[in-house]
Amino acid sequence: MLRLPPEYRDQSGVHAPLDFPEYRTTALRHPAQPLTLLPQRLTEITGPVLGEGRVTAADADLTLANNGEAQGQRIVVHGRVLDSDGKAIPNTLVEVWQANAGGRYRHTRDRWPAPLDPHFNGTGRVLTDTEGRYRFTTVKPGAYPWGNHHNAWRPAHIHFSLFGQAFTQRLVTQMYFPDDPMFFQDPIFNAAPEDSRARMISTFDYEATQDNWALGFRFDIVLRGRNATPFEEDDHDD
Questions:
Q1: Is-catalytic flag, 107?
Q2: What family is this (predicted)?
């Protein structure tokens, strides 16, 4: 029988608030009434089931799709998933989604006039190994306008989703790139407490670069504790 861990309790000063006035749509997205706890049925506590062969090496390479190669600066994004004691979390499903090099998502609601890349779908997944390590090959996403305020641009970022041993154990965050010039005006980034924002920024990793092929960035994800990576309280589509 699967035993779920104790209910995750938010640590004050780590995660973004549910309602952040500068991020205007949070007023429409967060619950307006007290939450109602529903009983967990078999589906919630026994999935996802990711046996051998369901997640392949090709799922971790976002640069190859639809019989072609994506445009843009190739990058390798890697890191470890750790618990609050620094111990590795193995066999965790890590999923990513992102805009292409021009800053556009392959999504019917994304209508801004940046070109779609026919060879970039913008999604990938991988299972962490026994040491909690993951690794993706992708292209650096572009910034894009999103209409939250005057001349609003999202910094380049990659969305991360992590699943535990059940569908009820899911955490979502965003990875940013160092020295992005758009940090100052992005309310999603700035909604996180100031002391925790650096944990959402990857570090350039020269050792992970591949000669004449790709730059390297490291992004470790800490699930809990005072060094936890800030996570979103609900699923944002930006």
A1: no
A2: Belongs to the intradiol ring-cleavage dioxygenase family.
- The answer to whether residue 105 is catalytic is yes
Per the annotation, the verdict on 23 as an active-site residue is no
Per-residue pLDDT of 49-102, as tens digits, reads 666 688 999 999 999 999 999 999 999 999 999 998 899 999 999 999 999 999
CB atoms near residue 203 (< 10 Å): 14
The single residue of 74, 154, 199, 224 carrying the catalytic annotation is: 154
Given the residues 125, 159, 199, 224, the one annotated as active site: 159
181 or 15, which is more confident: 181
- How far apart, in whole angstroms, are the C-alpha atoms of residue 80 and residue 230? 15
What is the number of other CB atoms lying within 10 angstroms of the CB of residue 140? 18
Q: CA Rg, the chain, in Å?
A: 18
159 is known as an active-site residue: yes
- Strands 157-163, 170-176: pairing is antiparallel
From the list 80, 157, 199, 224, the catalytic residue is 157
Check: CB of residue 104 under 8 Å from CB of residue 116: yes
Catalytic, out of 144, 176, 199, 224: 144
User: Does the structure show a pLDDT above 70 at 201?
Assistant: yes
Residue 208 scores a pLDDT above 50: yes
**Which one from 15, 23, 80, 105 is the annotated catalytic residue?**
105
Q: What is the pTM of this model?
A: 0.85
CB 168 within 8 A of CB 5: no
